[in-house]
Amino acid sequence: MLLRESGQAKAKHYELQGVTDRSLETGVENEDVLLAYAEAFWNKDRGVLDRARAALAERMGAGAVVEAAITVANFGMVDRIANSIGIPLDAMAVSATSDFRAVLGIDQFPSARNTLPA
Amino acid sequence: MASLYHDSLYPVRDKLDEAHRDIVVSLSRPGTWWSGAERAALAESVRKARRDAGIQDDAPEPASELAEVPDSARRVVSKIAVSPETIDRSLLDDALADGLGEEAYVEAVAIAVRLSNVDDFARGLGVEAPALPPVVAGEPSRVRPAEAVDEGAWLPTIPSGEAGGETGKRLYGKEWAANILRALSLVPDECASIIALEDVQYRSVKTIMDFDFTHDPAIARSQVELVAARVSALNTCFY
Quick one: pLDDT band at residue B26, thresholds 50, 70, 90? Predict the structure, then answer.
């Protein structure tokens, strides 16, 4: 996850806990429509995704819909690979992410056992 | 040739369209461990699982008669397609106990993740999932790369750098490659496909730390990363 680094590159601080705790805001511009769209992929009601897509397009334009869609698809692919092959997190990233992993509860994910000692 | 997503209200960039066309075509062709008919059958299992789970929009019927494939392989691709957040080591162990080879498992994973990727994208745009072309006859090559070794994943992978030998050099060039890019390297052709997709869909090794790089200025890098992080949280993916 490079959300923190993408903010640091622009001298901005994002509240990472907002990624897992949706009662909090991360501070990323237009996060309401972006997250509503991303989460709608998990909804069996196609109307929810249709409405979220339309809201995203109205706020950010057609290009943002395509890029958000491919980001959801791509990270769905990456996550499926990681979980299916049991790859550990790259060594350099283990220590670099330990602070926010603990806060966000990521260390409790089942796939954490592929990297962290039980 | 018409765009794969010609009926989308949202124009899809050419490289993305081409990359997805390559995926669709490859799923009906002989692979390294599965024939074209078997790959198409596994792809159809992916779509059936997604339909049953309510996350697959319309998709055309298969263009060819599908091959018989082991139930163990169908179980693997179905689980990966619809419930990746529940996967643990038992998915692999059960498949191996049922007689599926390590390499066939990796290729089945690749089929499931690449088709889910295409179908997720189509659903995101609100268009029909692309049709798979007719099956191409031929035998899988069944070549296991000698460079694959235990690097800490459940299955062997090909290291980057000198240890990766000629196959590693072909896959990663001179670049360091993250674990996720090497994950499917027990089947090098599938690994190469994922690396190419990452370049087109997200970032290459060379641009991943360039936070000004964008595929479309309509969305900033921080917004891409926010979506990516939320998806990984929903998939409970530690990586």
Answer: very high
pLDDT band, residue A118 (cuts 50/70/90) = low
Work out the angle at residue B40's Cα, subtended by the Cα atoms of residues B37 and B41, and round it to the nearest 5 degrees: 85
From chain B, the residues in CB contact with A73 under 8 A are 116-118, 120-121, 124, 201
Among the listed residues A29, A52, A28, A104, the one whose alpha carbon sits nearest the alpha carbon of residue B126: A52
pLDDT digits (tens, 9 = 90+) for B145-189: 999 999 999 999 999 999 999 999 999 998 889 999 999 999 999
3-state SS track over B13-40 = CHHHHHHHHHHHHHCCCCCCCCCHHHHH
Whole-complex ipTM = 0.96
The model's pLDDT over A71-113, given as tens digits with 9 standing for 90+, comes to 999 999 999 999 999 999 988 888 888 888 888 888 888 889 8
What pLDDT does residue B216 have? 97
Secondary structure element (H or E) that encloses residue B49, with its range: helix B36-53
* d(CA B138, nearest CA chain A) in Å: 27
Q: Which amino acid is at B190?
A: E
Tell me the pTM: 0.96
Find, among B222, B227, B209, B202, the residue nearest to A27 by Cα.
B222
* Residues of chain A found within 8 Å of residue B209, distances taken between Cβ atoms: 5
* Chain A interface includes B85 (CB < 8 A): yes
DSSP codes of every residue in chain A: --HHHHHHTTT----GGGGT-TTS----TTHHHHHHHHHHTT-S-HHHHHHHHHHHHHHH-HHHHHHHHHHHHHHHHHHHHHHHHTPPPPHHHHHHTHHHHHHHTGGGSGGGGGTS--
Q: What whole-number distance in Å separates Cα of residue B167 and Cα of residue B182?
A: 11
CA gap A2, A97 in Å, rounded: 10
- Paired with B149 in beta bridges are B157
B71: helix, coil or strand?
A: helix
Question: In angstroms, rounded to a whole number, what is the distance separating the alpha carbons of residues B223 and B239?
Answer: 19
